[in-house]
Design brief:
This protein is an alpha/beta fold. Helix content is about 20%, strand content about 30%.
Length: about 400
């Protein structure tokens, strides 16, 4: 089995993302459970907030015209009362309803209270320190738009409107299928030569959960076309399929062919390094990412293709990469024709290269803070050059 013609990394991503539609499944949940969820409908205010005129400061409600001429050397004297009329004022607290006929609040610090007499040392204008009806939210206003990623402060706004439940998109269910004769579960003792513990599936499941999805991590599947096909067919209720291993051109690399037999193999062989053996496909309208078995190649494929596909699938809004600038302590080399992901550690503004090769050196990612991404047409970056580091977390 040979690779299909290698395709540019970005073109492969665009082809992949256009091969499927975002999920349409919706559920209704209490707002208390909606932090980090995606709204499936526009939220329209059914009431004004506030729904009454309210004091915005602790102090005294007045008719602003009664404070005309008040100053530090010439206070105006008003009588503290229970009704508002000419020559009176009423005590209010922040959030209190404004008394009828009052139109402003004098702050406590601009007054002196003596018995039922209040000396006012500041002239104020109408509506000073008063919250109008609908000042925060107006009835009929669209408060939150469909597709918004909810934060705790958004949920507080929903609570201020008296909303108890909202419709959100269901979390994408992602099945993760680790393949390989050499893989063994972590509980096994005394590894034989050629055996390795399964790590890619575990890592992928944890990232899917971190991104807001529901991972379904299967047990290890042997390098058998029939077993791989059976694992995929048995999990077509999932919204997305991730496989790990079996994507190269060896005698036991069957995954891309199986994907092609069940659906459409869009790409096999992409311009990323590490990660060239990555395959991208679609089965029954569901995106399929076939990650290489080497751990570093797998995580690069997961971040570059899997994360983008997951976000589109789940209606998750795009967000900019977390990037810091740092100065390289040593030269890093790119690979012509490939988007190269060079692992670096950051120390006091210095980017220290860890590895640009070695797709199986998983610890190099654990030690790294991020990647310096070298474009396809650049041979590398030199020591002393300022670069952008895309943070892993």
């Amino acid at each position: 089995m040979m690779f299909k013609e290698r395709i540019n990394a970005q073109k492969a991503k665009e082809l992949f993302l256009h091969s499927f539609q975002p999920i349409s499944k919706i559920e209704t949940l209490p707002i208390e459970e909606c932090d980090g969820r995606i709204i499936a409908e526009n939220i329209i205010a059914s009431i004004d907030v506030p729904h009454y005129r309210r004091a915005a400061m602790d102090g005294f409600a007045v008719m602003a015209s009664e404070t005309l001429g008040a100053g530090t050397g010439s206070p105006v004297m008003l009588r503290l009362a229970n009704i508002m009329e000419k020559g009176t004022c009423m005590r209010v607290h922040t959030g209190s309803p404004m008394p009828e006929k009052s139109d402003a609040v004098v702050m406590m610090e601009d007054t002196v209270l003596s018995g039922d007499k209040v000396e006012i040392f500041a002239q104020i204008h109408p509506f000073k320190n008063v919250g109008a009806i609908g000042e925060d939210i107006q009835k009929g206003e669209i408060i939150l738009n469909r597709g918004r990623l909810l934060r705790p402060c958004d949920i507080a706004v929903l609570a201020s409107l008296g909303i108890g439940n909202i419709k959100v998109f269901k979390r994408p269910l992602v099945v993760i299928i680790p393949t390989g004769e050499e893989l063994v579960p972590r509980g096994k003792k005394n590894l034989a030569d050629g055996e390795v513990y399964e790590t890619n599936g575990l890592m992928s499941a944890m990232y899917i959960r971190k991104w807001g999805g529901i991972p379904r991590l299967l047990e290890i599947v042997t390098d058998s076309p029939d077993k791989i096909k059976e694992a995929i067919i048995s999990n077509l209720d999932a919204d997305m399929i991730l496989t790990s291993g079996g994507t190269s051109v060896g005698k036991r690399d069957f995954v891309p062919a199986v994907v092609g037999s069940l659906g459409k193999l869009l790409v096999h062989g992409v311009g990323i390094s590490p990660g060239k053996p990555t395959a991208l496909g679609n089965i029954n309208g569901k995106p399929v990412l076939c990650m290489p078995g080497y751990p570093v190649a797998g995580i690069v494929a997961l971040f570059f293709y899997g994360k983008a596909a997951f976000r589109r699938l789940g209606h998750v809004p795009d967000e900019p990469e977390r990037i810091v600038r740092a100065v390289l302590s040593g030269k890093i080399t790119g690979r012509t024709g490939y988007k190269t992901f060079a692992r670096v550690k950051i120390d006091n503004g210095i980017a220290i290269p860890l590895a640009t090769t070695g797709a199986g050196i998983l610890s190099s990612v654990s030690k790294a803070d991020g990647f310096v991404i070298i474009p396809e047409n650049i041979e590398g970056r030199n020591a002393g050059e300022e670069v952008e580091v895309v943070l892993i977390e």
